[in-house]
Design brief:
By secondary structure, this protein is an alpha+beta fold. It contains eight helices and eight strands; from the N terminus they run ααβββαβααβααβββα. The strands form two sheets. Strands 3-2-1-4-8-5 form a six-stranded antiparallel sheet. A two-stranded antiparallel ribbon has the order 6-7. The chain is globular and about 55 Å long. About 35% of the residues are buried.
């Protein structure tokens, strides 16, 4: 469904740019403001999700009564104790990709900051979608619910090769124009797919991020200067 972003998290932008707790210089501050403004005007955020019962099967974690499996030990551990999972996909749509490309042609620094702004924006879209999932389920349930963090294909040993099947299950190509190439790259590029575990009991917190991912040395995302979303 479409949503509107009205602002981007500046602290997150500067964290992506490597500033940590340091104050960016005035030129970087101004560039971040310019890129944020242009991106918010161009982006057309969309997302889709569905909640399925899950259980362990022969090939991994089976999603409902579909033929779709979430394969690998990482996702099995991530969803331990969960009887349901939300499958989520989100995109900033093609205008955001075109804006990043155009910005980089004329000014490498602007292209970098625009790309970072888009990364922050797509995470905020996912946050909004997750808020909706939580609110919708809370309204339908009598007891408390507990959720895992978003776990994306390509993280741990959950293979990228499930991207097309993942998107097909959500009817994402038709509904929000989100597809995957033959190399399993999402297009538009500023897009995310993720799995969120849902439990009626507290779930064990798990560490996340590139540093603890078993594929951090060979990760396809890191090779192209990107990440899978599990930061």
């Amino acid at each position: 469904m479409p949503i509107t972003l009205t602002d981007l998290d500046r602290e997150e932008i500067f964290r992506y740019l490597g500033y940590g707790g340091a104050q960016p210089d005035p030129a970087t501050l101004a560039l971040a403001e310019e890129c944020s403004r242009e991106l918010l005007a161009a982006a057309q955020p969309r997302y889709r999700y569905a909640v399925y019962p899950i259980w362990e099967g022969g090939r991994g974690v089976q999603v409902g009564d579909t033929p779709f499996f979430l394969e690998g030990e990482s996702i099995r551990e991530h969803l331990a104790g969960c009887r349901r999972a939300a499958l989520l996909c989100a995109t900033l749509s093609q205008p955001a990709d075109r804006l990043i490309h155009t910005a980089g042609l004329g000014d490498m620094a602007k292209g970098l900051v625009m790309d970072v702004c888009a990364s922050v924006a797509i995470e905020q879209v996912c946050d909004r979608a997750e808020e909706e999932i939580r609110a919708k389920l809370a309204a339908e349930e009598e007891g408390p619910l507990y959720f895992t963090f978003r776990f994306s294909p390509g993280y741990g040993d959950l293979p990228l090769t499930i991207q097309k099947e993942f998107l097909a299950l959500l009817d994402a190509p038709r509904r929000i124009g989100l597809c995957a190439t033959e190399n399993q790259i999402l297009t538009p590029r500023k897009s995310v797919t993720a799995v969120i575990g849902i439990s009626e009991h507290p779930v064990e917190p798990r560490r996340r991020g590139c540093a603890v991912c078993p594929l951090n040395k060979t990760c396809a995302f890191r090779k192209r200067g990107d990440h899978c979303g599990n930061q």
